[in-house]
Amino acid sequence: MRIAFYAPLKSLNHPVASGDRQMARALVKALERGGHSVELASELRFYLREPESKSFDALKIEARAEAARLARLWDRDGKPDLWFTYHPYYKAPDLIGPELASAFAVPYVTAEASYSRRRNAGLWADAQALVARAVEQAALNICFTQRDRQGLADAIPDAALGMLSPFIDTSAFRETPTRGCPTRLVAVAMMRPGDKLESYHMLAQALGSIGHLPWTISVVGDGPAREEVKAQFAGLPADRIEWLGAIEPAAVPDVLYGGGIYVWPGFGEAYGIAYLEAQAAGLPVVAQDIAGVPEVVRDGQTGFLTPSGDVAAFASAIERLLTRNDERTIMAAEARRFTLEERSLAAAAARLTELLAKIPVS
C-alpha cells in the first residue's frame, strides 16, 4: 500500500531526539519492511504546550491550510491507499488526517492514540473531543499498551482496536555484546521536571541505601532540570557517578554494552524505549511496576519490577542483581533474546501486516 504517515506531536525530521520521534521512525521502517510505500504527509507540528485558546485557534488555521494543500496534491497526483497517524492525544490531536481521509474515502488508522478522562476540562476537553472523533472514525486504532487500549475502549466503545507490542530497531544491537562490567549501572533519561525528576530522585535515594556495595553508574541525559537532578545525587560519592550528558542516539548502545544492569524507576513512562534498548544490549532491568513499563519488561525474567514508590524494594532489587551474578547473567541472556526475537522490526512488521490486511482498501 501507499501510506501517508503523519505524527502531529513531532515529525520524523524534528531536530530534537525523543522517544516519540524514535518510535515514529521505527513504525515507518516496520511498515516499509512489510512492503508498503510510506510518505511523510506533513511536517506540521500541532502541539499545545498549555491550554491556551489563541494558540489553539492559530494551529487550527494552519491545519486547515495544510489539509487544503494536501487535497490539491492528491487531486493532481492521486490519493494514498491509507492515512496513518502516530500518537494523537489531547496535546497533539490530528486535525489534518480525519478530514482528508473522509473527503477522499481513504481508510484512516492511528497508532498509540490515547484518551484520559481526567483531562476533560477547559480547552483540553475540546482537544480530546477531536481525538475521540478521530479514533471513532478510524478503521483501526493500534494500541501499544493495555492501559491505552482500555482508555480508548472506555471512552469510545465503538472504536476499532488492535494491539502491537512496543518494539525497537534492533540493528544496532545485533553484534554479540562483549562482557560489560556487572557492577556498572546505567540510566538513560531526559532531565526535566515532573516524572523524570521524580524518577531521578527515587534512583538517588535507592543508591544511597546500597552504598556498601561496589556499584558505579553511568547517566545519559540532559535537560532543563539538570541542576535539580545533580542536587539529588550530591550526597553520593562523586567518583561513582559518570555524567555523560546528552549523547547521539547512535552512541547509546556502546554505553549500554559497557554496563551490567539498567536502573530507572519509570514514573509516567508510556512504556519506555530505553528499557528495550537496554535489554537488547543484554542488561537486565530494575524498574517499577508502573504505567506502561510492564509492557516492555518481564518481571522475574528480564528484570525486576518493584511496587510503585517503594524505594526500599527498588534498592533491594538492584542489590540482588549486584550480588547474584549467576542470576544476573541468566536474566541478561533472556532480556536480549526477548528483545531481539519478540520486539524487533521484523516482529513488528509481521504484526502490522496482519493488522492492516484486515482493512478494506479501495
TrEMBL record:
Entry GO MF terms: glycosyltransferase activity
Keyword Protease included in the entry's annotation: no
Domain of life: Bacteria
The protein's Enzyme Commission number: 2.4.-.-
Broadest EC class assigned to this enzyme: transferase
Keywords: Glycosyltransferase, Transferase
Protein name: Glycosyltransferase family 4 protein
